[in-house]
Amino acid sequence: MGDRALDEVRALMRHSSRVEPLSLAGRRMRPVSVGPNSEIDGETVFEFGGEAGIVWAVYAGGRIRRGFLLGHMGGTNLEWHYAQANMSGVVSAGRAPCSVEVLADGRVRLVENFKWDGDQGQGVNGVEEI
């Protein structure tokens, strides 16, 4: 292999080994599956922001008047704390470790294993980019 061809291979390898960290900033998502103890539903929309590994979102719709989440993302792992008010005015909070997946079409899916503070239970929600 000539020097020029070898240089091109090296350049390609350097380029392909650089993986940009996934960001949720600017993404909008909606639940596609919800656990029985969940208050979000298919009408709830999440609007995400984030920087330097910190993730946040504001969400509303369906049974949720307003909700907020704040967490930390590292690779394909995300953990957040959330607080929300439902349409009846009841305020609830909890935490959720999540896995982050990139779908074949490039959209992002979050699988959230939520646990309410107190005795409201726990469950699994699936949220996908819209």
Description:
With 130 residues, the chain is mostly beta strands. The chain has one domain (22-129): Lipocalin, CATH 2.40.128. 11% of the residues lie in helices and 55% in strands. It has 1 helix and 8 strands. The protein has one helix spanning 3-16, and strands at 28-33, 45-51, 54-61, 64-74, 77-86, 91-102, 108-116, 122-129. Strands 1-2-3-4-5-6-7-8 form an 8-stranded antiparallel beta barrel. The protein starts with a helix and ends with a strand. The model has no long low-confidence stretch (mean pLDDT 90).
CATH architectural category? Beta Barrel
- The helix-strand sequence is HEEEEEEEE
Tally of extended strands?
Answer: 8
Mean pLDDT, nearest integer? Answer: 90
Key traits:
mainly beta; elongated
In short:
11% of the residues lie in helices and 55% in strands. It is built from 1 helix and 8 strands; from the N terminus they run αββββββββ.
Topology:
Elements lengths: L2 H14 L11 E6 L11 E7 L2 E8 L2 E11 L2 E10 L4 E12 L5 E9 L5 E8 L1
Antiparallel strand pairs: 1-2, 1-8, 2-3, 3-4, 4-5, 5-6, 6-7, 7-8
